[in-house]
Design a protein that fits this description.
Length: 147
């Protein structure tokens, strides 16, 4: 059966899955068969047995938070003025704002372009200074678009 992890507690090594059938199933780390750590929001495939999930596998391979953090940081450094890192993280409105301000900066003697470049550099530093877990929690799950 297909489903999604609603919650996983590292301390107790247990969690809850919402199945595509509308029911909720509990699970423990001993039932987890994938190599990646379970996390809330992950799509999974599992076998249901008396209200519990057994033989749980991730349903799709996703990019790890470390790779996503590094990619976002590099985009902020090299293409930050165009808002590339914002688009990469799924912040379309913020990406468009950065892109437009960057282009209007050429009309206004470069001052707005310099401000956008400074913001991108600050975000580059912030992305690199966060751990993979912090980055994932703040910018991917928490959806914090600025700083």
């Amino acid at each position: 059966m297909k489903g999604k992890i609603l919650n996983y507690e590292v301390t107790t090594k247990s969690g809850v899955i919402s199945g595509d059938d509308g029911k909720r199933y509990t699970f423990t780390s001993s039932d987890w068969k994938s190599t990646v750590v379970p996390k809330a929001g992950s799509k999974i495939d599992f076998a249901a047995h008396e209200g519990a999930a057994k033989d749980i596998y991730t349903d799709s391979i996703s990019i790890g938070p470390g790779a996503k953090r590094l990619t976002a940081a590099l985009l902020a450094f090299f293409l930050g003025g165009f808002g590339a890192h914002k688009f990469y993280l799924g912040y379309k409105a913020q990406g468009i704002i950065m892109l437009l301000v960057f282009w209007f900066g050429f009309i206004l003697l470069g001052i707005p372009t310099g401000v956008i470049a400074l913001i991108s550099f600050i975000e580059f530093i912030l992305y690199l200074s966060k751990s993979d877990e912090e980055f994932e929690q703040i910018y991917v799950i928490g959806r914090k678009p600025w700083f």
